[in-house]
Amino acid sequence: MATVSVSSIFSRFQSTVLRLAPKAGEPDPFSKMPLRWLLAPKATDLGFALRTTCAAFLALTLALWMEMDSPQWAAMTTWIVAQNSRGQSLSKAKWRLIGTCLGACAGVALLCALPQEPWVLFPILAIWTGGCCAFATFLRNFRSYALVLVAFTTTIIVLSGANQPDNIFMIALSRATYITLGIVCESFLAALFAPKLETVARAQIRAHLFGALHAACLGVGDLLRGQADGLLRSRALLSSIPSMADQTEFSEIEMGPYSHAGDHARAGLAAISAFLARGIALNIHMQATSPLPEGFAPQLNSILDLIAQLAEQFANAPSITTAQQARSMLRSHMTLSKQQGMDMLAQFQILQKRAPGPSPASHALLESRILQAAIAKLLVELDRVLAHIIAAQADTPKDHFSFDRHPEKDVTLAFNNGLRAAAALCMGGLLWEVTAWPEGSTLAMFVAVTSTRFSSFENPVVAASGFLRGAVWAAVVSFFLVFWILPDQASIETLLASLFIPMLVGGLALRAPGALAATAAAYNNFLPFMVGPANHHRLDELNWLNTTPAVVLGIGLGVLVFQLVLPFSPANERWRLRRKMVGDLQHLASGTLSLSSAEWIVRSGERLAQIIRHMEAAPNKLTEAYLSGAIGCMMTGILILRLHNVLFHNLLPEPQRAALQSLLHSIHTMQGYTLAPAQAARQALANLLPATAHMTNLSVQIDFGRAIGALEVMQAEFAANAVFMDTTRRFKPI
Q1: DSSP code of residue 695
Q2: How many CB atoms neighbour CB 381 within 10 A?
Q3: What are phi and psi of 623, to 5 degrees?
Q4: Which of 239, 368, 533, 651 has the CB geometry, 3.0–4.6 Å to 293, for a possible disulfide?
Q5: Three-state SS letters, 277-324
């Protein structure tokens, strides 16, 4: 009989997968197939599953060869640090290693300080864990994960060494060793199959920036045409930019430590947010001054043609050359816009000399000049975006540009997260101490793992529920392995062969879209633990029946704590978020909150993203009203900052300064449902408009125009969002 080599079988299998995979631009024939991720996986997904399974096997084999006491943790670690991109894997591996080492040191110190004192140890451990989880809320990406890891590594080491405190140092050293082994194995295999990281990362940044800019141009174009889709498109893009900015960190890691492309990418995304905000403000201003002045229409049409042309170029040819050509076109339009602004100002002065005082003609010129200035700012933001896109792709050696976002630190959310984690740990420790269950330490351990891992999530119940489902699936699969398959195995080779299919399926599920990925992550993590491979024995049925239910029950109790202690409510969270938005407007008006316009736009975008994350499966009337109110808060915040800037120049006459200060005071002191800010804006507008017609000083005229433009929009926004800004009661859209 002819023999067939393993390599030939694998090559045939690979060629079949590649042949079935859809070509670029062709529809995927398996896109609607049930279990598509398993029956017809993408080549990249299959490669990820195979690579990570092999890394887990390598880590497990080395751990067994090194006679480690808990070799399953090495295999678990490879699945934990394996991510969709190489940058994510490197970042998670780095911060996991840091968190493990710090947690190990803290665990040793804590148990040495309080040996045989469970009623003191558990409260102090709960305070330590809660503090770590609270501070993790202030951090982004895997830096937050590192602090969470410090918390549950400390807990695992303390609980593992509670019955044998003399060996606590070796327990901590062992855990750090097999965590390091798992990280090294995953990183080694991932590096073998991830060539040209810098090229791929730079292409990914370019695609994200041009894609966001293309969508922004389409949104702003629709806004200036008065189409409803423009606001929806702009709102959705604004809410997605914070997560896109966070993802640039991973591409930055892949490009190396000396590249500033990530800084330029984040700055470019911030400029896109400002471009969208300028477009929304211009749209609101155009609605407030309708009908538009006749002299403004040609300039508006010219800008619409420019934006449409640029959007088409960004979609068809996203490259540095395209960005450079676009900047050249923008410069000519910006020069023309400045010239038109000067011409309007000159015409206004001529009209002042001919017919002093307010008139329909002078008012039309004033409105045209205000709208023209708004378009000039719009073009400046677009030019800034293109400049950062070019810099991100060129990445010159002498470039020392640095840019980072500073997200808002939510103290209330941090306190809630820390309290949940502390309460869960106390509950687990109390159950162990009261029941004296031999596996009580395992239960308490996984209560702590669940409560700390998901404490920094905004909605921990949803995330932890997927974790629980994954643990249940791991228990089901490990049951068949432990009771039927592994008893007949006697070598590492047959052990790995028995685990291959279950782990490969888990790896494919990890790349599946939707909630299945969260379930698969927990399944991959817990399967090695529940199988319990070791050198000189196997996990027998009795030990499995003791250990596995303790793991599942511990995770279930962690989920229960999230439902009982300060449970997450989307409605309550939206109300809290609304109070924060209105409160920040009041602090901006009083000057106690110091932010730039760019920082305010970034903060507003993050809040839009929060509202969208908390909404139901499909947007409803309430969600739409919340999003509209959040956009209104963003616009009024920008205009409050503009009024502060005008007052800082100290050029306006005293009566007009007093009118603006009265408006800011009414915003700062508003309570409940009130139209006082809208009325104050109307009164200030009535004060400034006549004074503008008599003012001849050019610098003062410019500040008058900026203030009047802000007042016209604020008058409309405060009137339209008076119900939203009433934070004394639940928001019910009219």
Answers
A1: -
A2: 21
A3: -65, -45
A4: 368
A5: HHHHHHHHHHHHCCCCCHHHHHHHHHHHHHHHHHHHHHHHCCCHHHHH
pTM summary value: 0.83
Most confident segment among 161-175, 240-254, 300-314, 602-616: 300-314
Give the model's confidence band at 3: pLDDT under 50 very low, under 70 low, under 90 confident, else very high.
very low
| Crossing angle for the helix pair 516-531 and 460-480, to the nearest 10 degrees | 40
Q: Where are the alpha helices (DSSP H) in 355-439?
A: 360-394, 411-435
Q: What is the CA radius of gyration of the chain?
A: 30
Structure tokens at 636: 């009024």
Question: Length of the chain in residues, anyone?
Answer: 734
| d(C-alpha 486, C-alpha 541), whole Å | 11
DSSP string computed for 573-611: HHHHHHHHHHHHHHHHHHT-S---HHHHHHHHHHHHHHH
What is the distance between the alpha carbons of residues 251 and 261, in angstroms, rounded to a whole number?
9
Q: Could you report the per-residue pLDDT of 167-220, keeping only the tens digit for each? A: 888 888 888 888 889 888 888 887 777 666 777 788 888 888 888 999 999 988
* Contact criterion met (CB below 8 Å) for 525 and 76: yes
* Interatomic CA distance for residues 266 and 248, integer angstroms: 7
Q: Which of 33, 76, 78 is nearest to 55 (CA)?
A: 78
Instruction: Check pLDDT > 60 for residue 14.
Output: no
In what helix (H) or strand (E) does residue 549 lie, and over which residues does it extend?
helix 541-564
Sign of CA dihedral 190, 196, 201, 206: negative
Closest listed residue to residue 133, CA positions, set 398, 413, 345: 413
Identify the residue whose tokens are 């914070």.
242
Q: How confident is the model at residue 13 (pLDDT cuts 50, 70, 90)?
A: very low
Max mean pLDDT range (31-40, 224-233, 499-508): 499-508
Which helix or strand (DSSP H or E) is residue 643 part of? Answer: helix 621-649
Q: How many CB atoms lie within 10 A of CB 272?
A: 28
SS3 681: helix
* Residue of 490, 481, 462, 567 lying closest to 528 (CA atoms): 481
CA distance 283 to 263: 30
487 DSSP 8-state letter: G
* Residue 321: count of CB within 10 angstroms of its CB: 11
